[in-house]
Specification:
Length: 276
């Protein structure tokens, strides 16, 4: 893996060069083994938190971890194109628009002892801007090369705060073109419902049951690129004990190994459907 400036990352994309890089400021990673008509993303995988913010933050390290999406990059790591955030959403949230990416309140609790200075906010928002400049360059290149593409936008969610039974996988589709892509959304939902999980966990999968696909990563791509479907895919945190900050590696591994095939099969179906 190389450490590259965002301008260098974009040049490599434009030249269709395979590479694996971390951004110069360590805010995100991008791997491109080969240029294919699908992308895997994990914008909330990161846990890094800028040291100069530590003393001012009211939330504990555990409280931040609880709301992040650990292991979502792990689920998709073997695929040819993987983009993932390294920084915690508590510094700036890549799945929110720039005006709302920095929290004052986070899940009902004040985040900062003292309000952040304009320069502290600016430093975080520059990382948000640079990430999306790379996303724009990447999707532009892939649409130009393949016509239509699909993005697997991986997330996870805490289930203990729900007072009803919730699905193991939720797809949020309120901001995608369901008239055009609805059949492919359903085929992805069905494929995920067939996951074989340890401990007799039944892989229930639903559409717009817990979340509706309102994230900025999906909206940014969908609004800027008319031939790209973004599948906001939320896994219930069955792969960890969210109250003890404990990861279950056997569950993570089962998901990752099966997604190796399932993502590839679905991406092939998508491409063949829309590029006849």
């Amino acid at each position: 893996m190389e450490r590259l400036a965002v301008s260098e990352i974009i040049k490599k994309i434009e030249a269709e060069a395979p590479f694996e890089a971390v951004a110069e400021d360590y805010s995100f990673t991008l791997k491109i083994d080969e240029y294919v008509p699908y992308v895997c993303g994990a914008v909330h995988d990161g846990h890094q938190f800028r040291k100069e913010l530590w003393e001012n933050c009211i939330h504990t390290e555990y409280e931040r971890w609880f709301e992040e999406d650990p292991c979502t990059k792990e689920f998709i790591k073997t695929h040819p194109i993987v983009i993932a955030g390294c920084d915690s959403r508590f510094e700036y949230d890549l799945n929110r628009d720039p005006d709302n990416a920095i929290f004052d309140l986070a899940w009902g609790k004040q985040l900062w002892k003292e309000p952040l200075s304009p320069s502290e906010k600016k430093q975080s928002l520059e990382k948000h801007t640079e990430f999306y400049s790379v996303v724009h360059a990447l999707i532009s290149k892939l649409e130009e090369k393949f016509g239509t593409i699909v993005v697997y936008d991986m997330h996870s969610y805490n289930w203990r705060r729900w007072d009803r039974e919730v699905p193991v996988i939720n797809l949020g589709t309120s901001n995608v073109d369901n008239d055009r892509f609805g059949d492919l959304v359903e085929s992805w939902r069905k494929s995920l419902s067939e996951l074989q999980l340890p401990h007799d966990i039944k892989a229930t999968s639903k559409i717009n049951d817990t979340f509706f696909g309102n994230g900025y990563f999906l909206k940014f791509i969908t609004q800027n690129f008319k031939n790209t479907l973004v599948l906001a895919t939320e896994f219930k945190k069955i792969y960890c004990d969210e109250l003890r900050e404990l990861i279950y590696p056997e569950v993570v591994s089962a998901i990752e190994q099966q997604l190796q095939q399932k993502v590839k099969e679905h991406a092939t179906l998508f491409y063949n459907t829309f590029n006849k």
